[in-house]
Amino acid sequence: MLSSRVMNIAPSATLAIDAKAKQLKKEGKDVVIFGAGEPDFNTPENIKQAAKKAIDNNLTRYTPVGGIPELKKAVSDKFRSFNKINYDGSEIMIGCGGKHVLFNAMMAVLEKDDEAILPVPYWVSFEEMIRIDEAKPVFCETDKNFKLTAEKVEEKITPKTKLLVLNSPSNPSGAIAEPSEIRKIAELAVKHNFCVISDEVYEYFTYGKEFLSIASLNEEIKKLTITCNSVSKTYAMTGWRVGYCGAGKEIIKGMENLQGHSTSNPSNIAQMAALEALNGPQESVKEMVKAFDERRRFIHKRLNEVDGISCVEPEGAFYAFPDISETGMDSMAFASKLLDEALVAVVPGAAFGMEGHVRLSYATSMHEIERGMDRIEKWLKEKI
Ligand code: GLU
């Protein structure tokens, strides 16, 4: 009875590994989880209080489909101050998490048989989202440090190109696209008239490196771009499911229509929490980013000390994407044996379109990183 559209979807590897690791933990196994990218911090107190207040004030009914005006205003202010993009309220939509916003954005612009350029390695869900829309992912190589270049993008452009997926800082590699390359990519998009879905969820996790929002460059590229983001990573709010995007009015209208027939509005209570996240004190973000930076440097160093593993320094996000090809195992075998034999969960690179690598999320405590790295080191010593 299943449609071919659904039958052809591969399960999300990040969520599958996470579920398996959490299940093992529940069964009493001492698993170290470098699986799903989800901050280990609790949602800051002021944000939780705002949600509690929303319940007490009976903000428990439907809201406008694309989000409450106050939250759209807060998003618009944030786009202006942080990203240097001027989106007014009619150019903003609130969705049920970053993933849902990306899903809607793709569906709003992709037609059957359109080509969507997807830089490799890519976050697991991008490929499936493109396929669900019956469009074709066109894989685009990045350089040895996983950096996207305009030259490589240009090689993939055809008359059928409708879209480029830009994800900087990148999940899974952490690479941050160079501003000079982003400028050239914007010129290509304008010249060849294709859209850019810019997934900027890791924009705060840049550890001193320059980050540029492509839509901030000029009006022409702004019109072609859907700038997608969420409060999940920045404010440790993964479970609240609030994402947002900025784009031209027509695209936003189309996305709102889609949302109106699927999820309707994101949770009213979660929107009030997101409002406090964006408008309230930002100290907790700085503290979390500082902690992630320490972990980033530590895990990078430890990975490179292990025989058989080499790792490019992750510039942003909270993932390391080491090369494990010297171990002789493919990424699936590496990840599944590591979990079964050493109780450490990582995600195979194959899920991100790149064999020979695995992804480790370092959004976990230093203590856990240390324990996990000790186990990987010991396990590989015995194995190779
Ligand atoms: N974006 C995170 C990850 O890649 C969360 C899990 C998911 O939704 O894929 O791990």
Structure characterization notes:
With 384 residues, the protein is an alpha/beta fold. The chain has 2 domains: 4-43 and 283-383, Alpha-Beta Complex (Aspartate Aminotransferase, domain 1), CATH 3.90.1150.10; 60-279, Aspartate Aminotransferase, domain 2 (3-Layer(aba) Sandwich), CATH 3.40.640.10. It is built from 14 helices and 12 strands. The chain has helices at residues 4-7, 13-26, 45-56, 69-83, 98-109, 124-132, 150-156, 179-192, 219-224, 249-260, 268-279, 283-304, 331-342, 366-383; strands spanning 32-33, 92-95, 115-119, 136-140, 161-167, 195-199, 225-230, 243-246, 319-320, 344-345, 347-348, 358-361. A 7-stranded mixed beta sheet has the order 2-8-7-6-5-3-4, with helices on both faces. The longest helix is centred in the last third of the chain and has 22 residues, at 283-304. It is globular and about 60 Å long. The site of glutamic acid (GLU) has 11 residues, from helix 2 and helix 6. Residues 12, 14-15, 36-38, 99, 123-125, 171 line the site of glutamic acid.
